[in-house]
Amino acid sequence: MSNSLDGLQFPIQTHTGKASSSKTGQQIIADALSPVDQTSSSKVMNEKNWRKNYPIYFKALVENGIKTTQNPIEIAKAGLESAANVFEFYRDGQRHALKDIMTLSAQSLHTVTIRGENQQKTPEWSVPYQGKNLQGAALLEQIQIWEDTGIIEPSHAQALRTVEAHPEWFDLSDRTMVLFGAASEAGPLTWLSQWKANIVALDLPNTRVWDKILNTVKNGNATLYAPSVEVLDEQTPFEVLKEKLGANLLTQTPEIAQWLIQNKQQLDLAAIAYLDGEKHVRVSMAMDTIMHYVSQKKPDSSLMYMCTPTDVYAVPKEVIEGSSEKFKHRSKGHQIFSKGISTITQNHFFQENSHQLIQSDNGKQYGIADCLVVEQGPNYALAKRLQQWRATLARHQGQRVIINIAPSTTTHSVTKNPLLKAAFNGASLFDVEAFSPETTNAIMAALWVHDLRHSESLSNPERKMDHPLELMMEGANHGGLWRVPYLARTALPFAALYGFIDEKLPVKKVLGFFKK
Questions:
Q1: Among candidates 297, 287, 436, 311, which has minimal Cα distance to 373?
Q2: Does residue 337 lie in a domain region?
Q3: What's the mean pLDDT in 51-78?
Q4: Is residue 452 in a domain?
Q5: Cα 216 to chain centroid, rounded
Q6: Poorest-pLDDT segment among 64-68, 81-85, 230-234, 320-324
Q7: Which among 127, 198, 223, 375 counts the fewest CB atoms within 10 Å?
Q8: Is the four-CA dihedral 326, 358, 371, 446 of positive or negative sign?
Q9: What is the model's pTM?
Q10: pLDDT tens digits, residue range 131-186?
Q11: Which helix (H) or strand (E) holds 70?
Q12: Quick check: is 100 in a domain?
């Protein structure tokens, strides 16, 4: 069996002889809860329907995290330690503990350097939005609209205003930015390529992927550093380079780590790689293993993550109050419709969002925004939780950490799921906005710049936080999901229904009824 495995893998279960992402996920979440809530930890291990009920336990992580300022640190330590201990790495038919793989002999990766052809172009920023390219006053006006309608949090709006007021920040010629999953559809490659950044691009050896990366950089003013197992001359034609460049995060994990620590520059490490299903957990673990190792060897490195809004978070008290007000002041038609559906389905749909506030030992109260979408599955939730844990722990240990909630975005990975595609098409029914990839790219790239440049950003470890979970609260662009008056997953089917038949008159009448 070992001979058929290569790279980073879920552990083989002894009683079945097969890997189980569910069992592994349960073990990691149970271990994470164990230091703070032994009862919930035991319930996780006894859960028989993990795929359906996993939101219960991810919410328990947040509930327990809020209660004390130390709990999030304990949860993160226990969860990351568990993951490092259970995942395995296979090479040449031999099984290794993931935590030990940096001792493996690694084949050297070589660096190919490519410079953009528009080196004299001055870095600029704009936001593509609904057919327009927003800058200056028009951009500031749209930011205000998003803030007023609850699409973005005030801290996110302020960050965008601040970075817009500092165009000099966009000259990134002094930064070396490592993109894990450089060709990611929701990633910042296009903008970094226009901002003179030194881009260390990591992505699969794939002709289509590298054709995109090379042409993006060629048309800009940045400098690209790409890995290759062969020594390649800088004059090598693009048609040859796109066949030769790349490295696999899952199978070349130690090689990539060793390659990065040889870079003499301060590194900004961005975990933006995405794969479907259980591979998403594995690639998150690969990125975490590399980033943690590089951070140990190069302590001045910064970390960057983009969170999904379809997760469960601790949120400020005012967010909960805003959601509660929205529920109280729904239109009469909205109330009649939602109450009727809720009654018919025995409260399965249109469940009121929890407006409970939880007291922390820091004297403040926080709420929970539970926006988990069951259809995305426990693997997706685990992959993103691993990133939150590393961000929380690294920031606590004094490292600069950028972690911002990005809006729901109509990327291919989202829209290929018919339910999610329809739900986001119909999201306006509940005052939620899904962003196009080009809009998300522009906003989140600018937010990265803000958090690297601005000394008052919470990414700066010298700035005091009242609670570790506030790191994920600041700068959030949740698209309105935090302030929906219903538990998001209980309203999703109706957003999807509206999205499926958006162009038909009867649905427009329903929407009008909601507003009355």
A1: 311
A2: no
A3: 97
A4: no
A5: 23
A6: 320-324
A7: 375
A8: positive
A9: 0.91
A10: 999 999 999 999 999 999 999 999 999 999 999 999 999 999 999 999 999 999 88
A11: none
A12: yes
